[in-house]
Design goal:
4 helices, 2 domains, alpha+beta, 5-stranded antiparallel beta sheet, two-stranded antiparallel sheet, globular
Length: about 180
């Protein structure tokens, strides 16, 4: 399973340097071995801290990285603001090239999804696995729809995990109320 996603802040394992990188792309080299899927990803990363004017992309194996700051955290927003301020302070007014790379790679995924909607059969780009965070649903309507979906899934497959997820969604409804 993929460990890092486009936009994640990562650091190199076993490095004594205080340096952070951002994932700008990845390649999936997963394979089947004796009926078991062996996960293998390589990531393109660019240095974000210490800030440099034009960081270069560097390919690294998944085993060489560890997460520094994940998406959707307060720290993530803070680091982005810090990087922007540092670039401005150094009079580097152009957009950082890692932002350009992230937009380009995210655009490929969006184009693929648009072609699917039009009924075309496009070649699928490498893309992160979809993950639903039931404890972070944004509206009560989303929660109610999710409760219905989880009930249907439980009836179809009989897996008790769907009932556990229903409890998580019910807690989220209470928080949103």
């Amino acid at each position: 399973m993929q460990e890092f996603f486009i936009g994640d802040f990562v650091k190199l394992k076993n490095s004594n340097e205080v340096a952070y990188f951002i994932v700008v792309d990845y390649a999936d080299f997963s394979y089947n071995q004796n009926g078991v899927t062996v996960s293998s990803f390589d990531y393109d990363i660019m240095q974000v801290f210490p800030t440099v004017r034009t960081p270069q992309s560097e390919a690294v194996m998944e085993s060489e990285l560890e997460i520094a700051i994940g998406l959707e955290t307060k720290e993530y927003d803070y680091i982005l603001k810090f990087i922007t301020k540092e670039r401005y302070r150094n009079n580097w007014l152009e957009e950082a090239n890692f932002f350009t790379e992230i937009k380009k790679n995210s655009q490929a995924i969006a184009e693929y999804e648009e072609k699917l909607k039009r009924g075309e059969n496009p070649k699928k780009p490498t893309k992160p696995q979809d993950v639903i965070y039931y404890n972070k649903l944004e509206t009560i309507d989303e929660c109610l729809d999710t409760l219905n979906d989880l009930s249907r899934l439980h009836k179809l497959f009989g897996d008790e995990a769907y009932l556990t997820l229903r409890e998580v969604v019910k807690e989220r409804i209470e928080k949103l109320s």
